[in-house]
């Protein structure tokens, strides 16, 4: 053994080839500070060993290196610039040491080699991967750029335009695509990996592979003629701006770094990368995106833990084959749990199956599925008009019309057909889970399972714990949601549960602005372009449906009369009363049609302005900051109330609910991250300026206290 630590072992193989094996104690290899220090020490031992003639990097895990240890990032990035620069420089010195070894080097890669893992293999002269490998640089998705030489070595290996595409998209790459552009030298079967790598090293040693030339290329300026460089970088900037937009600066920074460093040798190019890395690491966007990544891990780990208590779900059923029931059936079947879809009307069943077939047809057309898989998924959905079909179901999801009496009857009926330990969940969006539980003989087997529309696209499922729901019930529904590929968050029962409870105060803020003469299209523009929502409030109401919005708003007003009760008509009432239901009947705040190419189109409709001005008078202009404050303050305070009341268990789950459930701008990280970023005291001062607008604008005592103590919602 040449070297050994808890994360890395180095041994000498035949022919004096050293094998450096990443073998961390956890389930995967990560580039944490310990591994980096260990790699440094291992390379020193290799250099000192006079026998070594070549080096092969390998992994003893099912993946090579998943990347840097992101759990270290937030605290690391809070350090001052000089400390951060020292960290980056030290890391780069290790990668340079690897690259500068006086003999040929190769990486034999299995599984994932992402971020720092990919940057490691870029530092070796050769790369061979197995057929299951995925490589790539996902850093820009976290609001930063590669910081261990990724922006320097990759463009010099695969060309600037390919490298910019890889870096700015942050996507994982498949072996065949990586081979095509020259990012790797060979793809082999997993069982041949090490033997192939050793064979390539031998070819390097006997001179049939010119490893020195490859190394020199990586260390030299990028060979790009002036005109070509101009084309490449200006095209990349245009693309990046249209895809990432102004709220996500990292992809553009990556293009700039590659451009600025194009004429430089490795060491100077690394300095350019390091400066840009440090600048981005300090941005609020990076903190928010890293926060989302960590929250996502936290929520998934919690779901996994819950899985231990869960009952097996081998057969499911959904009641109601409407928009939601059809979507739930498709999602369950496509992720491998067969499902019975029960309705009272044959046409509804036909429609539900058609919906599933439509989604699958699009996937086949886009090459994401095959006709065989499509047939298999459809075969996993059993339509039925008869309750007898649900009798072997381990879980039944009720998704019939939103009517308390109908749901109560249906739930009581279900209980007569299923086994004693089957779990029953309701997809209701507004009816109290505690109320619905009263229709069941065994309320402990019941909870809410609130999907979002369209089911196959929306990542969140809100799982609502009623007073009587058992832990096994919650765990089983959590595990089923995870198996369906969704992110579950568990919340306690209250009107609107979590997501709708905080969404309707935002709509109330919007309606308040309209009642004072604001132009809904102007509000949408500010909330989309400046705040960063995927849709402004008027557009979102049109998508949700004004009938649904009108009904849910009444439920919220009844549940929280002090804050959400209304005097007089608001914009939602006006749209609803005038049968402007939104996209579903092609007119809401906006008018909807299809253009000549058959693409859906959204237009300003003078009729909605006439209806609104008849009630609220002439249009009036509002400042952007005012629009944002009036819409967002109610949502933010209500979200905090949900935490204080224990409706959500943690800021992490609240923020994930908002990002995954309603598209809260990821670069802001969610309400709690947003509050921490702006400072709770600053928020309280802002909200106080609007307190005269009513209960939705009044901060809680706990918020005031947190502000006074200069506290935050997240600890890191
Ligand atoms: N549409 C959404 O955006 C959305 C989002 C989340 C939750 N939800 C909730 O999901 C549920 C269903 O909503 P939807 O939009 O799919 O409604 P929908 O009107 O499209 O479908 C309801 C289906 O239930 C069927 N049905 C009625 N009575 C039944 C019975 N006794 N047994 C079996 N089937 C019966 C109807 O025939 C219809 O096919 C509602 O509780 C709704 O609040 C809807």
Automatic annotation (TrEMBL):
UniProt keyword Lyase, yes or no: yes
Gene Ontology biological process terms in this record: fatty acid beta-oxidation
SUPFAM superfamilies (UniProt xref): 6-phosphogluconate dehydrogenase C-terminal domain-like (SSF48179), ClpP/crotonase (SSF52096), NAD(P)-binding Rossmann-fold domains (SSF51735)
Region described as 3-hydroxyacyl-CoA dehydrogenase: spans on this chain: 311-716
Listed Gene3D superfamilies: 1.10.1040.50, 2-enoyl-CoA Hydratase, Chain A, domain 1 (3.90.226.10), NAD(P)-binding Rossmann-like Domain (3.40.50.720)
Active site per database record: 450 (for 3-hydroxyacyl-coa dehydrogenase activity)
EC number annotated for this UniProt entry: 4.2.1.17, 5.1.2.3, 5.3.3.8, 1.1.1.35
Domain 3-hydroxyacyl-CoA dehydrogenase NAD binding: 316-494
Start and end residues of each 3-hydroxyacyl-CoA dehydrogenase C-terminal domain: 496-592
Residues covered by region (Enoyl-CoA hydratase/isomerase): 1-189
Domain of life: Bacteria
Reaction equation(s) it catalyzes: a (3Z)-enoyl-CoA = a 4-saturated (2E)-enoyl-CoA; a 4-saturated-(3S)-3-hydroxyacyl-CoA = a (3E)-enoyl-CoA + H2O; a (3S)-3-hydroxyacyl-CoA = a (2E)-enoyl-CoA + H2O; a (3S)-3-hydroxyacyl-CoA + NAD(+) = a 3-oxoacyl-CoA + NADH + H(+)
Pathway(s) per entry: Lipid metabolism; fatty acid beta-oxidation
InterPro entries in the cross-refs: 3-OHacyl-CoA_DH_CS, 3-OHacyl-CoA_DH_NAD-bd, 3HC_DH_C, 6-PGluconate_DH-like_C_sf, ClpP/crotonase-like_dom_sf, Enoyl-CoA_hyd/isom_CS, Enoyl-CoA_hydra/iso, FA_oxidation_alpha_subunit
Family: In the N-terminal section; belongs to the enoyl-CoA hydratase/isomerase family.
Protein's job: Involved in the aerobic and anaerobic degradation of long-chain fatty acids via beta-oxidation cycle. Catalyzes the formation of 3-oxoacyl-CoA from enoyl-CoA via L-3-hydroxyacyl-CoA. It can also use D-3-hydroxyacyl-CoA and cis-3-enoyl-CoA as substrate.
Record note on quaternary structure: Heterotetramer of two alpha chains (FadB) and two beta chains (FadA).
Annotated protein name in UniProt: Fatty acid oxidation complex subunit alpha
Organism of provenance: Shewanella polaris
């Amino acid at each position: 053994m040449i070297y050994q630590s808890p994360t890395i072992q180095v041994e000498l193989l035949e022919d004096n080839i050293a094998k450096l094996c990443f073998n961390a104690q956890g389930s995967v290899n990560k580039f944490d500070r310990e591994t980096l220090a260990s790699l440094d020490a291992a390379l020193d031992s290799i250099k000192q060993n006079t026998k070594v003639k070549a080096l092969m990097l390998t992994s003893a895990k099912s993946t090579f290196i998943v990347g840097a240890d992101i759990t270290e990032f937030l605290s690391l990035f809070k350090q001052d610039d000089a400390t951060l620069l020292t960290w980056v420089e030290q890391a780069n010195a290790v990668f340079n040491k690897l690259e500068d070894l006086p003999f040929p080097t190769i990486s034999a890669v299995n599984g994932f080699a992402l971020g720092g893992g990919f940057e490691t293999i870029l530092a070796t002269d050769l790369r061979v991967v197995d057929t299951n490998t995925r490589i790539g640089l996902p850093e820009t998705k976290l609001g930063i750029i590669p910081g261990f030489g990724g922006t320097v070595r990759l463009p010099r290996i695969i060309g600037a335009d390919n490298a910019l595409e890889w870096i700015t998209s942050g996507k994982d790459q498949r072996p065949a695509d990586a081979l095509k552009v020259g990012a790797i030298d060979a793809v082999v079967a997993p069982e041949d990996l090490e033997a192939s790598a050793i064979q390539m090293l031998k070819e390097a040693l006997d001179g049939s592979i010119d490893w020195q030339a490859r190394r020199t290329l990586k260390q030299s300026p990028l060979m790009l003629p002036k005109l070509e460089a101009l084309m490449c970088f200006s095209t990349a900037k245009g693309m990046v701006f249209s895809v990432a937009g102004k709220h996500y600066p990292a992809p553009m920074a990556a293009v700039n770094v590659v451009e600025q460093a194009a004429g430089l040798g490795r060491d100077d190019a690394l300095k350019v990368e390091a400066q840009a890395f440090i600048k981005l690491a300090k941005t609020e966007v990076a903190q928010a995106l890293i926060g989302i990544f960590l929250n996502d891990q936290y929520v998934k780990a919690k779901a996994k833990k819950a899985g231990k208590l869960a009952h097996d779900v081998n057969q499911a059923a959904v009641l109601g084959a409407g928009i939601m029931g059809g979507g739930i059936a498709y999602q369950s079947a496509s992720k491998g749990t067969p499902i019975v879809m029960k309705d009272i009307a044959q046409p509804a069943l036909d429609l539900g199956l058609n919906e599933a077939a439509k989604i699958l047809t699009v996937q086949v057309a886009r090459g994401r599925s095959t006709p065989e898989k499509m047939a298999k998924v459809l075969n996993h959905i059993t339509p039925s008009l008869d309750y007898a079909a649900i009798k072997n179901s381990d879980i039944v999801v009720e998704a019939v019309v939103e009517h308390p009496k109908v749901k109560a009857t249906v739930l009581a009926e279900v209980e007569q057909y299923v086994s004693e330990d089957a779990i029953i969940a309701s997809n209701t969006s507004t009816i109290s889970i505690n109320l619905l539980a009263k229709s069941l003989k065994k309320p402990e087997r019941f909870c809410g399972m609130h999907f979002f529309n369209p089911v196959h696209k929306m990542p969140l499922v809100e799982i609502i714990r009623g007073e009587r729901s058992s832990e096994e019930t919650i765990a089983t529904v959590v595990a089923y949601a995870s198996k369906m590929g969704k992110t579950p968050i568990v919340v306690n029962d209250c009107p609107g549960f979590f997501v709708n409870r905080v969404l309707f105060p935002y709509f109330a803020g919007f309606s308040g602005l309209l009642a004072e003469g604001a132009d809904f299209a102007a509000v949408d523009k500010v909330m989309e372009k400046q705040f960063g929502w995927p849709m402004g409030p008027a557009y979102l109401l049109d998508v949700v449906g004004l009938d649904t919005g009108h009904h849910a708003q009444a439920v919220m007003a009844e549940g929280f009369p002090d804050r959400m009760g209304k005097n007089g008509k608001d914009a939602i009432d006006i749209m609803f009363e005038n049968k402007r239901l939104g996209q579903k009947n092609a007119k809401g705040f906006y008018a909807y049609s299809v253009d000549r190419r058959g693409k859906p189109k959204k237009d300003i409709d003078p009729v909605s302005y006439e209806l609104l001005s008849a009630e609220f008078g002439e249009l009036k202009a509002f400042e952007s900051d005012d629009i944002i404050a009036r819409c967002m303050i109610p949502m933010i305070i209500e979200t905090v109330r949900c935490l204080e009341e224990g409706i959500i268990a943690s800021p992490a789950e609240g923020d994930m609910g908002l990002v995954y459930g309603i598209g809260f701008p990821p670069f802001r990280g969610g309400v709690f991250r947003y509050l921490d970023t702006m400072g709770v005291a600053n928020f309280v001062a802002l909200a106080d300026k609007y307190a005269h607008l009513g209960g939705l604008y009044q901060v809680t005592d706990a918020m005031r206290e947190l502000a006074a103590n200069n506290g935050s919602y997240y600890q890191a």
